[in-house]
Amino acid sequence: MSLADLYEVLHRRRDTRGEFTGAEIQDDVLRRILAAAHAAPSVGLSQPWDFVLVKNQDTRRAFRDHVQAERSVFAAGLEGERAELFSRIKVEGVMESSLGVVVTYDPDRGSPAVLGRHAIADAGLYSVCLAIQNLWLAATAEGLGVGWVSFYREDVLRRLLDIPARLRPVAWLCVGPVRSLPETPDLERHGWRNRLPLDDVLHHDRYRARPSR
Amino acid sequence: MSLADLYEVLHRRRDTRGEFTGAEIQDDVLRRILAAAHAAPSVGLSQPWDFVLVKNQDTRRAFRDHVQAERSVFAAGLEGERAELFSRIKVEGVMESSLGVVVTYDPDRGSPAVLGRHAIADAGLYSVCLAIQNLWLAATAEGLGVGWVSFYREDVLRRLLDIPARLRPVAWLCVGPVRSLPETPDLERHGWRNRLPLDDVLHHDRYRARPSR
To answer: What ipTM is given for this predicted complex?
Structure first.
């Protein structure tokens, strides 16, 4: 049944690092997941995203090295048990995945007057994220894994892919076939953080402060 | 078949303004779409979102009035044909929809060291948008419409719902049963802007500049 299937995909989706097989993504599958991303809602119908499909091994290796350096930057700020926990957590599958999909935000798309963006400049950036989640869910339904890597400096990624300064890289997504998707998120399995109950984030008519977790 | 159903929902989804019936959303349906949002991926498993469910009519009316004022601000910057086109476009269904769902971003969730956010401060904001798209797709599959209103000032919405200054409102979503979902996006139907072909936003290994549209 359609409804149950959708929820199954929504809840099965994982942020994938260690489960990529490296096998090729079929062209028709790749086309469908990119079309899914491109079908996302966007402020003023601006569709302000671009997708750079990165297969080149040298480019990916250079990015992976940068990510590892940024991993060390983050690690250096941790102490004791947190540092120990983090040392066991894999943060990227750049080389193991089949493809890098870099998603960017182009604020000039649909300019000058983007309907719905005059009061909230970031609304265009928000649209790009909606496209990313569409891609993620379609990939999950197709049996692929997706891992969002965010241990990088935007300028480094711009230089690596010739992305103009006015564009903003929003994500490097590692995409590809996986052995399996873990039932529990990696960070929860490693004891880094547990998921919150839904009721902790629900409010009625007005925001009510609660202890932040 | 599951895969076809998912793509059907991804492509059928619309940004809804004029089709709300105002009928009640069933409690179990609302719970499922909020649980779908809450199942989104998030940087460092921070789940930095909150959902304020706004039923109160006075609150919604005050917000609607503010949105109308911001609509006029945007309209004042348009000229000629664009102004004429815009005058026919409905930008919100705040009172006609069944429920307002205000989604906020809490940067303190999971602090101090949010895994994956040290290099990209906005990564938490991105996570909130992924939750919004999950909600949108689940609502679409449940036969509801969703309309993202972005004609507002964040401070006005904060004051209206007692949202603390450190939190950022990301969206007011109009949610509820609809008569139907239009096949063509409103803005395209009114001649404001047409959707781009997918190939216009695809790049291989490096970003290649193209005429911005």
So the answer is: 0.97
